[in-house]
Design brief:
Elements (H helix, E strand, L loop, with lengths): L1 E6 L2 E6 L4 E4 L1 H19 L9 E4 L5 E4 L2 H7 L5 H16 L4 H20 L4 H22 L1 E2 L3 H12 L8 H15 L10 E7 L7 E3 L2 E3 L11 E10 L19 H24 L4 E4 L5 H9 L3 E3 L4 H11 L3 E2 L11 E11 L2 E7 L7 E7 L2 H24 L1 E4 L3 H14 L6 H12 L1 H9 L4 H11 L6 E4 L4 E4 H4 L2 E3 H19 L3 E4 L27
Parallel strand pairs: 7-16, 10-11, 10-13, 11-12
Antiparallel strand pairs: 1-2, 3-21, 4-5, 6-17, 8-16, 9-15, 10-14, 14-15, 17-20, 18-19
């Protein structure tokens, strides 16, 4: 039992038995250590020459990736401070789609630098204030070094930069063309909803066989073998109610005393279904996508009418079909008319890797498109999909913001240089925190150099010297030289850096301000604090996170 004092010989119980508490410097050291360990875990994946991680879950399923947020999601992380850094990666993924590893390693390095300041007896609140000032100044510097981006060539370079080092190296140019084409197609007044770009993946072919479909691919097949396999100049009906005789909403009992009554009852049901099919045909539809079921008899009548029909289509796919073809999703067959139909140049059943799929193609100015991703094996296709998602995110961010920065560590070195100059204008101990923040940002080019097998110290020295002349100088990990990354085509969206620095700084500030960690559970149950108990005497120990 946790007892915090005694009154008249009786213990005062505050927390239930099994609770644990770590406070003061021990709590700070433990949380900082957890953040550092997590950052080190993903650090080797950064950059074009970053390595991959193989993650195996309890069922034996394997994920091979160097995508930071995927690694952190797949890891079974228990330590509470480490979970806060996982949230940084998830936020980065949701907001931009790329830069997740960058955000986590910056947060880890900020915590590492803060530990040195804590050893100098600088109060955590002072460090947090300094970090906040540095983060605000970083955004100002980012805005100064940002470059306007509007042309398609810049978008292609942004997409290729995002995909470099993610298993798509040999086909990154054609894939970048597909991504930029998809994003530009769904753009609506400068806004891009990435949900309108559907990604279908199938193994059994090369990456070069990937394609952009100006329409929607539905992973289904026609419900009846007698239906046409291909319809040209299709008129498409979208229905979200079942084509079958509905049961009554109240319990009803029908007494039949004559076989003729039974026959009339069956014929009435058939006529109702036939009327439904006739309504669809009379509206002019040649293709039907139904969100719910289609009765066997209705399938027969639809096939006789020459209408291709697909049932149990997902709601999200129905919405994409509506945006791609211009059709209106109808809830009642009686309300269906010609104006509700959508148009597509071709609707055809095609076999991909032995599985039938419906291709709705050649739509006129579709606001929903599909990327069909191909690869040799399932693991390869999965990693290509992650690279494509990152590329879509950065291209969308670039179109929406119209700003980019140089890659290869150029932006981080520029910000670090500006922050060091800014630190000289600050009085008080916050100056040390701002300087530490600047040094922490240099972990990005330093890590790029380390992952490429280069000397990180030499690379940093060369970069700092080069930035006295140009803001765009970054590290070319393939040659080991410091070059103008903007001219080299290594470009990243302004939003990636902005979000990574902001979220990393805020997470580091929050962790630094924690000086007391209390874990409580039900009586008799030991709390799982990810190895937090007993760490007071072992600041150099490693808290288990997995």
């Amino acid at each position: 039992m946790a007892q915090l004092g005694q009154g008249q010989g009786q213990p005062i119980i505050i927390m239930p038995e099994g609770s644990s508490r770590v406070l003061g410097r021990d709590a700070q050291r433990m949380n900082i250590l957890a953040g550092k360990v997590l950052a080190e875990t993903v650090r080797t994946t950064l950059g074009p020459k970053g390595m991959d991680k193989m993650l195996v879950d309890g069922l034996g399923d394997i994920v091979v990736t160097n995508d930071g947020v995927t690694i952190l999601k797949e890891m079974d992380i228990e330590h509470p401070a480490a979970k806060m850094l996982v949230e940084v990666a998830k936020t980065q993924e949701d907001e931009v789609g790329d830069g997740t590893t960058t955000a986590v390693i910056i947060a880890g390095e900020l915590l590492k630098k803060a530990e040195s300041l804590l050893d100098m007896d600088i109060h955590p609140t002072i460090i947090a204030m300094g970090y906040r000032q540095a983060a605000e100044k970083s955004q100002e510097i980012l805005n100064v070094i940002a470059i306007d981006a509007e042309d398609r060539e810049t978008l292609l370079k942004v997409a290729m930069t995002a995909m470099t080092g993610k298993g798509t190296e040999k086909a990154r140019e054609p894939l970048a063309e597909l991504v930029v084409g998809a994003v530009k197609q769904v753009e609506d007044d400068g806004e891009i909803d990435q949900d309108h770009i559907k990604i279908e993946k199938k193994d059994g072919a090369t990456i070069d066989d990937s394609q952009l479909v100006n329409g929607v691919i539905i992973d289904k097949e026609p419900v009846h073998p007698g239906m046409p396999k291909k319809v040209e100049d299709a008129r498409i009906a979208l229905l979200n109610s079942a084509i079958e005789v509905k049961e009554t909403e109240v319990d009803a009992e029908i007494r039949i005393t004559d076989p003729a009554q039974m026959q009339a009852f069956i014929e009435q049901e058939e006529q109702m279904i036939k009327d439904m099919v006739n309504k669809i045909a009379d509206a002019g539809a040649t293709v039907l996508f139904c969100q719910k079921g289609i009765d066997d008899l209705a399938q027969h009548y639809l096939a006789k009418a020459g209408i291709m029909a697909v049932r149990r289509v997902k709601k999200s796919d129905m919405e994409k079909l509506a945006r791609a073809t211009g059709a209106t999703v109808v809830s009642n067959i009686e309300d269906l008319d010609f104006e509700d139909l959508g148009l597509a140049g071709s609707v055809a059943e095609k076999k991909i890797s032995g599985e039938a799929m419906i291709f709705v193609e050649d739509c006129k100015d579709p606001k929903s498109v599909t990327l069909l991703i191909r690869g040799s094996t399932q693991h390869v296709v999965d990693e290509i999909e992650r690279a494509i998602e990152d590329a879509i995110g950065v291209v969308a961010a670039t179109i929406e913001d119209g700003k980019v920065v140089s890659g290869g560590g150029a932006a981080e070195i520029s910000i670090a240089k500006g922050l060091k100059e800014y630190a000289d204008t600050i009085s008080g101990r916050e100056q040390l925190a701002v300087t530490a923040f600047a040094e922490a940002l240099e972990v990005v080019p330093k890590t790029l150099a380390e992952n490429a097998g280069l000397d990180s110290i030499d690379a940093l020295v060369d970069l700092r010297a080069a930035h006295e002349k140009s803001l765009y100088m970054g590290l070319n990990v393939f040659t080991g030289d410091v070059t103008d990354m903007y001219r080299a085509g290594v470009i990243e969206p302004h939003r990636v850096k902005k979000q990574a620095i902001q979220s990393a700084a805020e997470a580091a500030e929050m962790i630094l301000r924690i000086d007391d960690v209390i874990a409580s559970t039900g009586a008799g149950k030991e709390p799982d604090m990810g190895g937090m108990e007993g760490m007071g005497g072992m600041p150099g120990g490693m808290p288990p996170m997995m």
